[in-house]
Amino acid sequence: DPDWCDLRSNLSALHRIPAEQILCGNGSMELIACLTLAFAAEGAGVLAPAHAYPFFKTAARVARARFDTAPETTAGVSVDAMLDALRPDTRLVFIANPGNPTGTRIPRDELLRLRNGLPDHVLLVIDEAYGEFADHLGEQMFDLVGRGDTVILRTFSKAYGLAGLRIGWGRVPSAIGAEIRKVMNPNNISAAAQAAAAAAVCDADYMQETCMMTAQSRDGFITRLRDAGFMVPESFTNFALVRFDSAETAHAVDAWLRSDGVVARPQGGAGLPDCLRITVGTADELDRAAGLMERWAQREVT
Ligand SMILES: *Cc1c(COP(=O)(O)O)cnc(C)c1O
């Protein structure tokens, strides 16, 4: 179904947004790539925070757009720095909220301040790949799409656990959606993936319970790491980002974890070579990872 009718109608009912404004992609990565192709080709500027999701830069390069970044503080994205980094030819601003790999979150009033500080011709894309993990805070942003200059992206890859099926979606102003569809594969999502996603939307309770369990495990894991002396910012996602004193230490800890079968994710690609991202797994897996980290900390002091 090139118009994803069942999936759109279920998403429309769950989120109470008009089905005509929902666009579905082969993963939200396809929507990011098509947005960039449609709106920032031919040397225009694309702006994102310094430690944003690395695919924003890939999409800009593929579209032959210039990619600019704004510095972040230790607390995360700075709206002031984003506004300072705007250039006359900036056409597209990407922000992931909550962030990946930072795990941090920008409150709604700060996002509104960003949108109000951007010129009307600059399209703001708020990538909420981890949005379901923050929905309980009651600061949904979907209404911002009504302005006509803002896009909200979501995905089935994180809270729904369907990354392998490749289904992303977004609430997109109709005029923007029409431009995106000009550069998008008209048969982008397989029938099997559409059916699975449409069914998953109908079990919101299960998804929310999964998010709650994940958040509980994550916070217990983060507390254990902090007690062992590691620097771990608060996370609003399904992972913890651990910051070390140097890239060399991050590399050594990565090797230490791997030697016992625990695979963390180095973050050099996001400009954070001194960090490792550890995804929330089962209780046993997290216990094993935390135990290894504690032994590393012990080894450091002795
Ligand atoms: C995982 C992720 C994506 C990609 O999601 P897909 O729907 O699997 O393509 C996009 N943006 C962010 C911030 C992500 O973390």
Class by alpha and beta content: alpha/beta
Instruction: Show unreliable segments.
Output: none
State mean pLDDT (0 to 100 scale).
Answer: 96
Order of strands, main sheet, comes to: 1-7-6-5-4-2-3
**Radius of gyration computed on alpha carbons:** 20 Å
Distance between the termini: 62 Å
* Structure annotation, total helices: 10
Give the helix proportion (percent range).
40-55%
Hetero groups in this structure are:
pyridoxal-5'-phosphate
Estimate the strand proportion: 15-25%
> How does the major sheet shape up?
7 strands, mixed
The helix/strand series, from N terminus to C terminus, equals: HEHEHEHEHEEEHHHEHEEH
Q: What is the global morphology?
A: globular
Please tally the β strands and state the result: 10
Topology readout:
Blueprint: H1 5-15, E1 22-25, H2 28-39, E2 45-49, H3 55-62, E3 66-70, H4 79-84, E4 90-96, H5 108-117, E5 123-127, E6 150-155, E7 168-171, H6 174-182, H7 191-201, H8 204-227, E8 239-243, H9 247-258, E9 265-267, E10 272-279, H10 283-301
Parallel strand pairs: 2-3, 2-4, 4-5, 5-6
Antiparallel strand pairs: 1-7, 6-7, 8-10, 9-10
The structure holds pyridoxal-5'-phosphate.
